[in-house]
Amino acid sequence: QKEVEQNSGPLSVPEGAIASLNCTYSDRVSQSFFWYRQYSGKSPELIMSIYSNGDKEDGRFTAQLNKASQYVSLLIRDSQPSDSATYLCAVNMVGSSASKIIFGSGTRLSIRP
Amino acid sequence: DGGITQSPKYLFRKEGQNVTLSCEQNLNHDAMYWYRQDPGQGLRLIYYSQIVNDFQKGDIAEGYSVSREKKESFPLTVTSAQKNPTAFYLCASSTTVNTEAFFGQGTRLTVV
């Protein structure tokens, strides 16, 4: 089982609709969860961090965390063509000697006009 | 300007050569990371460091080495033992190991 799993996509969503991106993780004691957006050929940029169960909203983005189910999601409302990118889920994994941030393989999102 | 600087942006290596990728941050972050990204793939952790003079192997450390002699610097050496080094290398840093990481612009390494 991979430490952080995402559906690779591509996920195609019409402009103006809600895009829903999902991620599951294996480490039950993880406390920090992140969503990044990566455009082709560029480095990832942070969209949201979430640390507590429930929803966290920032503009058109909402992150949802359910630690009991080991599941974190990202909703993008009113999707725009500029939202077309790869979305990476990242989780802080607590190891025996050190903590580290592990990324999923990413979901490609395409917003069609 | 505060941020994370990686250099060079593009790097070409001959077979059998060692090369060193630079990563410098002026954000006063304790934790630093190196990731490798292959085309169409996610980020794989090479090495990470929580504090100065300490670092740990990630999932794909073989053929790589690092040092953390200064808080602001975390250079990565790709050695000749790394058989397939062509990839996009990303350096990141975070305030602590539990907080979000921010990335440099990346170095694209190609073996010629």
Note down, in words, how this protein is organized.
The complex is a heterodimer of chains A (113) and B (112). Chain A is mainly β and 113 residues long. Chain A has no helices and eleven strands. In chain A, strands 2, 4, 5, 9, 10 and 11 form a six-stranded mixed β-sheet that branches. In chain A, a hairpin with a 2-residue loop joins strand 6 and strand 7 (61-66). Chain A is globular. The termini of chain A are far apart. The model of chain A has no long low-confidence stretch (mean pLDDT 94). Chain B is mostly beta strands and 112 residues long. Chain B has strands at 4-7, 10-13, 19-25, 31-37, 43-49, 56-57, 64-66, 76-78, 87-94, 102-103, 107-111. In chain B, the strands form two sheets. In chain B, strands 2, 4, 5, 6, 9, 10 and 11 form a seven-stranded mixed β-sheet that branches. A four-stranded antiparallel β-sheet of chain B has the order 1-3-8-7, with no helix packed on it. In chain B, a hairpin with a 7-residue loop joins strand 9 (87-94) and strand 10 (102-103). Chain B is globular. Chain B starts with a strand and ends with a strand. The A-B interface holds A 6, 31-32, 34, 42-46, 49, 88, 90, 92, 95, 97-106 and B 33, 35, 41-45, 48, 50, 56, 58, 90, 92, 94, 97-106.
